[in-house]
């Protein structure tokens, strides 16, 4: 599903965000990325959905060499990768339904398909009855559920989640994690960066720890393992 081979990422200011990273993530895995702030986690994920390209090395996602992808192929590859951000990034003037439907509109899906699929995913995330509400009328947890619905509406094979519970209270965070666990159970690979020790230690998925741009630990059913 995702494979990095000797990946280096150096930014113009000389910062080495990743240093010789090699890792393979299989289909249907749920992987936590942990480590201190500035360790390279966000860069790791941006490489997956091709917001960044490696300075050196090769990364493949769904069989595509991401670093050498032609511009016309990028939208196609991104359709198969859902992205969930800590700050939700919803369009404030659109309803929950419209925010989710927008992801289908940009790929010119038929209107009947858009309506049916959008309501299906809103039901999955527990917001079918709030489809017409604007983000300002929703709680933080509900906004994140809309963001997750938007990420999965295209049936992506991979979801990349950058601190999806970072702005939420503990109870709401667990609701989001149960939702992501259900999505993973349905067959979607999930790569999630987090600083939430309780979630990582309780759910016991694969843990990849990054420090100073290097993978320092890769454990099945791992633990958080940091004290900050």
Automatic annotation (TrEMBL):
InterPro entries: AAA+_ATPase, ABC_transporter-like_ATP-bd, ABC_transporter-like_CS, ABC_transpr_LolD-like, Cell_div_FtsE, P-loop_NTPase. Its main location: membrane. GO terms for molecular function: ATP binding; ATP hydrolysis activity; transmembrane transporter activity. Gene3D superfamilies: P-loop containing nucleotide triphosphate hydrolases (3.40.50.300). It is found in: Cell membrane. One of its GO terms (biological process) is cell division. One of its GO terms (cellular component) is plasma membrane. SMART domains: AAA (SM00382). The keyword DNA-binding does not apply. Keywords: ATP-binding, Cell cycle, Cell division, Cell membrane, Membrane, Nucleotide-binding, Transport. It is a peripheral membrane protein. Residues 2-228 form the ABC transporter domain. It holds the Pfam family ABC_tran. The keyword Transport applies. It comes from the Bacteria. Belongs to the ABC transporter superfamily. Part of the ABC transporter FtsEX involved in cellular division. PANTHER family: CELL DIVISION ATP-BINDING PROTEIN FTSE (PTHR24220:SF470), IMPORT ATP-BINDING PROTEIN (PTHR24220). Homodimer. Forms a membrane-associated complex with FtsX. This is Cell division ATP-binding protein FtsE.
């Amino acid at each position: 599903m995702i494979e990095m081979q000797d990946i280096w990422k150096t930014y113009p200011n000389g910062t080495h965000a990743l240093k010789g990273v090699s890792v393979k993530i299989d289909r249907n895995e749920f992987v936590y990325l942990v480590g201190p702030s500035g360790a390279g986690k966000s860069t790791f994920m941006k490489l997956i959905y091709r917001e960044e390209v490696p300075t050196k090395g090769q990364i493949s996602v769904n069989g595509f060499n991401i670093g050498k992808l032609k511009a016309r192929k990028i939208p196609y590859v991104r359709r198969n990768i859902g992205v969930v951000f800590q700050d939700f990034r919803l369009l404030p003037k659109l309803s929950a339904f419209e925010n989710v439907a927008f992801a289908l509109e940009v790929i010119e899906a038929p209107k009947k398909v858009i309506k049916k699929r959008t309501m299906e995913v809103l039901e999955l995330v527990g917001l079918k009855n709030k489809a017409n509400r604007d983000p300002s009328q929703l709680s933080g947890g509900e906004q994140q559920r809309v963001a997750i619905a938007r990420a999965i509406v295209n049936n992506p094979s991979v979801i990349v989640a950058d601190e999806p519970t970072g702005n939420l209270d503990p109870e709401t965070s667990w609701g989001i994690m149960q939702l992501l666990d259900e999505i993973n159970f349905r067959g979607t690979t999930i790569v999630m960066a987090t600083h939430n020790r309780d979630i990582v230690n309780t759910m016991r998925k694969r843990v990849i720890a990054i420090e100073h741009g290097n993978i320092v630990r890769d454990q099945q059913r791992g633990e958080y393992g940091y004290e900050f």
